[in-house]
Design goal:
Helix content is about 85%, strand content about 0%. It is mostly helical. It folds into two domains: about 220 residues, no CATH class; about 210 residues, no CATH class. Helix 2 packs antiparallel against helix 4, helix 6 runs antiparallel to helix 7 and helix 9 packs parallel to helix 13. It is globular, with a radius of gyration of 22 Å. Its main location: membrane. One of its GO terms (molecular function) is xenobiotic transmembrane transporter activity. Keywords: Antiport, Cell membrane, Ion transport, Membrane, Transmembrane, Transmembrane helix, Transport.
Length: about 450
Amino acid sequence: MKQWYRIYKPELGETLRLSIPIVIAQLGVVLMGVTDNLFVGRLLGAVPLAGAGLSVSLAFLVSSIGVGGLAVTAALVSQARGRRDAAEINQLFRAGLQVALLLGLVLGLVGAGFAYFFDLFGQVPEVTQIGRNFMLILSLSNLPLFLFIAARQLCDGLSYPRVAMSITLSALVLNALFNYLLITGAGPFPEMGVYGSALATLLSRGFMAAAIILYIRRSPKFQPYFQPAFRLLRVRNQVVRILKVGLPGGFTFFFEVATFSLAAMMAGWLGADQLAAHQIAINMASTTYMMATGISAAGAIRVGNALGRSSQTAVRRAGVAALWLVTAFMGLAAVIFLTANDWLVSWYIRDNPEVAALAASLVIMGGFFQLSDGVQVVGIGVLRGLSDVNVPTVITLFAYWIVGLPMSYILGFWLHLNVAGIWIGLLAGLTMAAILLPIRFFQLLRKLKPDAIEETIYHP
């Protein structure tokens, strides 16, 4: 054990160093939606909150394809860094921005389609009207969000994750300020009500995109990747490469997000109390999941860098270190969920003992799937570092939509296990993915040879 720790200690330290700023940055993006809901709910009431909240959830579902698709670029940048290819890094940066523009346009139109057909969600007329207009503004804000994520891949891939972290935290404060000013019409600002919250998100995301691109272009640490000669290099092949590798990764993220959205819908079919308990427990699980995605992103970067250096040993160490790190973190989260479930639920609800008791039981089940959730998301990350995305997409589709969701429905409704049955199905799907994804990683690892790495990875 001591020998193992001595070998893996540097890799564990580097993965952790990369993970923490990425976790904070990702939580900051998610917290923008939470901030919108908090301001709308406290300042305007239940109906505007219902319309805004549903729009935020739908917008996140649509944008998940772009967010997951662009995330692969950091691993590609890290691979090029391992090969010390500054020209390719420049091409990947410019190609990533072009892909972001494309995805922003396409998914923006998809979001607009959701807004146009908002009445199909069966909401009351007031919620439908608010939700439709709110969704249109959020769809427009996808463009600057994707530009920020694309530019961020350069920073993360070159192991400068604190750049995106700092900008995201600044934007989170800016978003809260704009929410207050535009909702209430304080000072010289117009009173826009609920739509002021959506505009606050648009302005904050615009700030994020402009800030990170300006920083990259002006910071001395990035200048080696922007030599004048690089401007003449075409990026068409890199655009195709990012789309080819990134879109399956985007749909992998979409399948998982959609699974939990559909699980919430099924919980709502059982009743308001069941849905409330589900939302409390899933909110806790989502928080730890977001932290695990930081380790996943760091694992992808470290594996990609090792691949670029043509080192099978380094690839193994990077992948194993990420898996062990997430196992330790999610193991700790599992212990907290299993032993402090009642206390955790008390932070959300106090005046409804039936909902509190049901939520506490679901938190215990959430404790059991913490390890599976962490391992599967890191499994996706380390495979992304190897540019292996097609098979993981099939694995997640099978695990979540063939195993998890049908089992949730059968156990919850046919066998009358209620919302607990839905969660057992989620546990089964996550566990299946947590088994198959690491197996895939170690299968590819055995095929890696220093003299044929590119052929092995891109033609598995």
